Amino acid sequence: MSSTPANHNQPDRGHGASFPQLNPNPIIGVDSSGHVTFLNDGATRALEYTGKDASPGLFLPKDMNEILAALKRRERATFRREVTVGDLVFDESIYVAPEDNAVGIYATEITERKRTEQALRESEERFRLLLHQASDAIYVYELSEDRAGRFLEVNDSACRILGYSRSELLAMAVGDVTTPGSLARMPEIVAELRARGSLVFVTENRTKDGRAIPLEVNARLFDLQGRTVVLAIARDITERRQAEERERQHLEDTVMLRDTALGFIQLAHDADVYQYVADRLSGVVGEAYVIVNSYDENADQFTVRAVAGIGAQLEAVIRVMGRNPVGTVFTLAREHRSEYASEKLLKFEDGIRELSSGKLPGVLAQTIEKTFDVGGIYAMGFHWQGRVLGSVNVIMRRGAEVRDPAIVESFVNQVAIALQHRRDTDELYRHRVHLEELVRARTREMELANKELEAFSYSVSHDLRAPLRAINGFAQALLEDCGAQLDTVARGYLDRVRAASRRMAELIDHLLNLARIARLPLERKPVDLSEMVRTIAGELRETDPARQVEFVIQDGMSTQADPVLAAMVLRNLMDNAWKFTGKHPTARIEFGETERDGERVWFVKDDGAGFDMAYVDNLFAPFQRLHTTADFAGTGIGLATVQRIVRRHGGRGWIEGAVEQGATYYFTFAMVTKET
Asked: Which partner from 13, 44, 66, 410 sits 20 to 30 angstroms from 429, CA to CA?
């Protein structure tokens, strides 16, 4: 079959252009031998576009011989074929014309349409792959006035989630797989979807086996050949719901543990801590009977202290046991105690009989289990630092499981701490009560002693002073009235009697002052210690202006103290420094401030007679002196008074010195901060 006639592309245009030539679509003429006898300009342009060597035979379909056979049979026929000419695709209408002994081909280029169709097929294939490979369920369904209609398409995941085959679902409507509760919300959802065009909502579908599963649906409206349909992508959120439920339950359990801990703290001292534990634990484990036992280590026995979760069945318990279980005492063999009071929550596989360590007869154990519909049985001990404080038994109702064993263990461990705290608190309470009784007894003794001291002080002030005044007065009268008749020795004796009576009166005064210090009220106020010492130093100079004494007083020293008592401290210390430097021609007395171990310390330092540190403790005892009265006057009360005042201020005092090298007295007052 030839396709290249000598004159096919040289048409006769002498009589003007004909319609075939003017038609932009390719028109090809073929004779009975299969030779191309005519090409219009549209065909020529298509060949030129394809390439300079393109043959007109490219327009002939592959089954051209069958078409020519029809021509030879003189049959008028029409054929429809697609032909590719290079990159171009043509839809050809082929006409067999026996009267002209020729075949005419009218070609319409459909390249873009074919590309579009191919792209559409590829898109549909991609959609199909995405549709059926997606892990989420995908539905396409009709939308009626107020509810979802029948399914038009479903993917494999939809079939898997709902448990139906594809053919089954395509014969159903959305409402057929929707739970009644979600179906009731359908009109509201459809109305909102129509208004917004897209919507995310949660619904519940019913699977083929009757299970209800929650789905999060992302739905979008679109038009399909004049029908409103919905493309819905539904995700099974069962695991998410379960995770949220676990999280919610965990939060509730955490709050419960916190509230339980706070409850232990706020629990009244006389409240039943074991019943509190039983009630709280009953709420933790779920449907169960809870028994809380204490353990007496010395007696090696357990005692049932509280039960919870039994409620109206308590009467049945009493009938079976013959008594209220609270107060029941029992012992366990050591080999069974590790299970009954384990550090972990253990389950007893053999039920009530195993829980009783085999002591309960089998028939009775079965009766109890049947009466109370007993399920799983668990036990755990309250442990504190290797010691068993008690135990808890959890008897689940049949068909129920412990909601969260880890939370139960946390609760029991928390209870162990609380029980030990309660035991410690009870012990402290007993000690406190005993201590309060001792304090009351000591207070009564002290009040009695104070009354006796007041009586003694009154006696000293009045009963002892009167004889002293009489002795001193009669001695004075004897000297004045009979002095001329007495020799020198007798007058000396009388002088010594008078001096002794005066010293006795002075000792009485100092002793009363020492006793009075403990009863004086302590009123802390700002006190300028530096100014107070300057005043005392000025008064000392006036007593003996001829002495060569240098006073070194640090400026700015102040504190919070009782002004009267603080003055007594400084007066005694400065008097001692002035007195014990009296035998030196020159002296130096210093008042200053230092710091020891972060504590503010004041001191009075002199360079006088000093003392032997071996006898330092004697300095603070009343009337104890390291020097004779002949060397240094005094009563031995001064430092004892200072120590008592310092201690009343919550401070401490000590003294350092050496013989003929002076002495330094240090003292502190409590709760004193250095002003800045």
From this structure: 410
Q: How many residues does the chain have?
A: 676
- Looking at residue 215, its pLDDT comes to 93
Q: Which of 173, 186, 244 is nearest to 217 (CA)?
A: 186
Among residues 423, 335, 347, the alpha carbon closest in space to that of 385 is found at 423
pLDDT at 24: 84
Which positions ≥6 away from 75 have C-beta within 8 Å?
96, 98
Tell me, what's the pLDDT at 200?
A: 94
Q: Are 662 and 608 in contact (CB under 8 A)?
A: yes
**Rounded distance between C-alpha atoms, residue 309 and residue 374, angstroms:** 13
Q: Which residues of the chain have pLDDT under 50?
A: 1-17, 358-361, 363-364, 673-676
Indicate the pTM of the whole model.
0.41
Domain ranges of the chain: 19-109, 117-236, 267-403, 521-667
Angle (deg, nearest 10), helices 238-266 and 273-285: 180
pLDDT of 8: 44
Let me know the angle formed at the C-alpha of 214 by 210 and 220, rounded to the nearest 5 degrees: 115
pLDDT of residue 517: 60
- Whether the CB-CB separation of 379 and 340 falls below 8 Å is answered with yes
CB 552 within 8 A of CB 589: yes
∠ CA 140-141-147, nearest 5°, is 145
Q: What angle do CA 586, 592, 598 make, to 5 degrees?
A: 145
pLDDT of the residue at 371: 59
Among the four given CATH numbers 1.25.40.10, 3.30.450.20, 3.30.479.30, 2.30.30.230, the one describing domain 117-236: 3.30.450.20
Whether 267-403 and 19-109 are alike in CATH topology: the answer is yes
SS3 state of residue 571:
helix
